[in-house]
Structures are given as structure tokens and as C-alpha cells.
Amino acid sequence: MQNVFDAKDAQQYIDRINLLTPETQRKWGKMTVDQVLAHLNVAYDLTFYPEKFPKPSFIAKFLLSRFVKPKITNEIPYKQSLPTSPAFIIANERNFDEEKAKLIGNIQRVQQLGRDAFEGKENINFGKMTAQDWNNMYAKHLNHHLSQFGV
């Protein structure tokens, strides 16, 4: 598993993103390349701007932390065409260049903040997470969707 807190690994993600163009076609799934960039940015928006999202109820957060979090934060790659949480569904067209720049900025921000900033950091849906949980969540999500677009 790549380390999103490591400058070299973060740059490898950025290099892969820079291979994408507005014309890049998906290998599976429904989202276009601009939509998937926006979709990937939602994970960072949930991290840095949780106030923009509705808080899950106590019961929902309990269920998410017990049953979804382990699948999101383990090191097993995501399968193709898994269901998407409603907050992550991007149905409309997005500006490719804006979403790409935002995603690169988000990757750089996580890397620059470093592992210590994420150790014990609260996730709106899953509660407190370790830095390794955050790393695995970001790395798996990036790898899944960049592979979806062949980069």
C-alpha cells in the first residue's frame, strides 16, 4: 500500500492524475473522468470541510464505523462497480481542469500535513481513525479510480 504521507508516493499519484485528459475513457463504471475527479475530491471535502455534510445519526455512525470502516480502511483493493455512498455520487458534468487541480492540491495538502496530523483525527462517518486508516482509505480510493481510467 502506498503511503499518502510520503512525498514520493504522493507525487506518483499526481503523475498518474496528470496522465488523465478530458477524453480519457473508463474501463468500468458509470462516471466520466471529470465526475470521478470530483468524486475523489469528496473524500477530502469530508476530511477538511465536514460541516458541509449532514452528520450521520448515532445509529448510522455506529453501523458505519463497525461494518463499513473496516472495508474502507483495510488493505484489500476495492472491487469494480461497488455501490457508492450518496454523498459521493456525482451526477452532473464537472470542470475537468478545476477538479484535477483541486485533487492534486488535496493530495499535496494531506502529504504536507503529514501522518501526525491524521493520527486520531475524527472522520464524520467513522469516528476517530488512525493515520494508517486515513492512509489506506485515501490510497485505496485513488488506486481504484485511477485504475478505472487506465492510469
Protein architecture, described:
It is a single chain. By secondary structure, the protein is mostly helical. 56% of the residues lie in helices and 3% in strands. The chain contains 6 helices and 2 strands, in the order αααααββα. It has a two-stranded antiparallel sheet with strand order 1-2. The mean pLDDT is 97.
Could you outline the blueprint of secondary structure elements for this entry?
Layout (H helix, E strand, L loop, with lengths): L6 H12 L14 H16 L9 H16 L22 H18 L1 H4 L3 E2 L3 E2 L2 H18 L3
Antiparallel strand pairs: 1-2
Helix pairs in contact: 1-4, 2-4
InterPro entries: DinB/YfiT-like, DUF1569
Protein name: DUF1569 domain-containing protein
Pfam families: DUF1569 (PF07606)
Key phrases:
two-stranded antiparallel sheet; 6 helices; globular; 151 residues
Characterize this entry briefly.
This protein has 151 residues and is mainly alpha-helical. 56% of the residues lie in helices and 3% in strands. The protein has helices at residues 7-18, 33-48, 58-73, 96-113, 115-118, 131-148, and strands at 122-123, 127-128.
